[in-house]
Design brief:
Blueprint lengths: L2 E10 L10 E10 L2 E7 L11 E12 L1 E3 L11 H8 L4 H6 L4 H9 L3 H16 L3 E7 L6 H17 L3 E9 L10 H18 L5 E6 L6 H13 L5 E4 L7 H7 L4 E4 L5 H10 L2 E4 L1 H6 L8 H7 L3 E3 L13 H12 L3 H7 L2 H6 L16 E4 L6 H4 L6 E5 L5
Parallel strand pairs: 1-4, 5-6, 6-7, 7-8, 8-9, 9-10, 10-11, 11-12
Antiparallel strand pairs: 1-2, 2-3, 4-13, 13-14
Helix pairs in contact: 4-5, 5-6, 6-7, 8-9, 12-13
């Protein structure tokens, strides 16, 4: 077993139930291979063997490595033209109804090879890694045929072979109804979504199942059928819910013990209560709120009161959140949604891990993965305070700098 001692640092453990970020001054962390073995004040460190490697972190602040729990990182093309149309007054729903929106990305993604999708995604991934990220979720959803959905999932999985990062993949074929199934959403679910899910599971390409529950997409009843198929395969579920209207998606996904309900601008009390009872994570996506110039803020105070854990993610996608900075998403969550800096950091570490179904990362505790970020800052509040500034000093991935 290889031991490494990280010293001369301040640590924000982000451990649940610990006040003030779980801060430890004059701290030391001992790693055993790819796991954390010990963390605490320097003077309390058990005497390690004389051969133990020691690394001086130069007084930096150490946090868990960041986790982006909601991205659409793999896609073809871009939608800069729609950005311009929105600035001229077009709404997201209007653009979608005229063949833009998700369908624009579908056409570009179908036209792209797997290699081209990987090449296009790598710069976006590198930007996230460069901000201290170690884990991210990547959804399909721009293929909308079995062939192209599987292509997206393969491309996403390949990224983890090309970079030191942990990728979890989510099947999102129930993202939009393609032109060839116009007016026949149920047929699309029967012929593409569910058979494609079975194929993705058989190919070991999927970790969870998602959908877009909205008036312009799929009803709760339709998503319920997709969730039934996921349950039969033993796969956890999550849902794009209450972004543009209240479709009772959060209540649905909570009733299935879902990992997360994401967006939540139009979430009502019934949905909050259901999420709290199921311990379903609320994933806040301020990038989409910002890019769409929305004005209805998710019911943050009600979610707090109910004890719903909150995560923060980029929602990196080509149309409604072309955002590849989790640090900026953290700032947006504070400024636009009034989350505290501690809530925001928990949302990009501990709670983001829960939103992906992981309990082996997101906090600095013995037994957890040694995925860490070392920052040139004095206090963790600086991570959400600064705008357009990256204070990352070093990233430690699986115990390796």
């Amino acid at each position: 077993m290889g031991l490494t001692v990280l010293e001369n640092c301040r640590v924000a453990t982000m451990a649940f139930g610990k006040p003030a970020y779980g801060l430890i001054d004059d701290a030391t962390i001992m790693l055993a291979d790819d796991r954390i073995q010990w963390v605490g004040h320097r003077t309390d460190l058990p005497q390690p063997p004389a051969t133990t490697a020691r690394i001086d972190l130069g007084g930096g602040l150490v946090t868990p490595a960041l986790i982006d729990c909601h991205t659409h990182l793999v896609f073809g093309g871009d939608r800069a033209d729609e950005f311009e149309r929105r600035l001229h007054g077009a709404t997201y729903a209007e653009i979608a109804r005229t063949g833009g929106g998700i369908m624009s990305s579908v056409r570009a993604t179908r036209a792209s090879s797997e290699d081209e999708l990987v090449a296009a995604a790598l710069p976006r991934l590198d930007t996230l890694i460069g901000e201290g990220l170690a884990t991210l979720e990547i959804k399909s959803g721009y293929g909308l045929t079995i062939e192209h959905e599987l292509k997206m999932l393969r491309a996403a999985r390949r990224l983890a072979t090309l970079r030191p990062v942990r990728v979890t993949t989510t099947y999102l074929a129930a993202h939009a109804v393609p032109a060839e199934f116009a007016g026949n959403a149920d047929g699309f679910i029967d012929e593409i979504v569910i058979p494609g899910l079975i194929a993705a599971h058989s190919a070991n390409l999927v970790n969870a199942v998602d959908g877009f529950c909205e008036r312009i997409a799929f009803t709760p009843a339709q998503m319920g059928r997709v969730f039934d198929a996921a349950a039969a395969l033993g796969l956890p579920v999550k849902l794009h819910a209450e972004q543009l209207s209240n479709s009772n998606g959060a209540t649905l996904v909570a009733s299935r013990g879902g990992l997360s309900a994401d967006h939540l601008e139009y979430l009502d009390d019934k949905g909050v209560t259901a999420m709290a009872a199921a311990r379903t994570i609320g994933v806040l996506l301020p990038g989409a709120f910002y890019a769409l110039r929305e004005t209805r803020v998710p019911p943050i105070e009600r979610l707090r009161e109910a004890g719903v854990p909150l995560a923060v993610a980029t929602d990196c996608n080509p149309g409604t959140s072309p955002l590849t900075s989790l640090l900026l998403a953290m700032n947006m969550a504070s400024v636009l949604f009034r989350l505290t800096p501690e809530e925001v950091l928990a949302g990009a570490t501990r709670n983001a891990a829960k939103a992906l179904g992981y309990d082996d990362r997101g906090v600095i505790q013995p037994g957890k993965l040694a995925d860490l970020a070392v920052w040139n800052i004095a206090h963790p509040a600086e991570l959400s305070y600064r705008i357009g500034f990256n204070p990352l000093r070093q990233r430690i991935f699986g115990g390796t700098l």
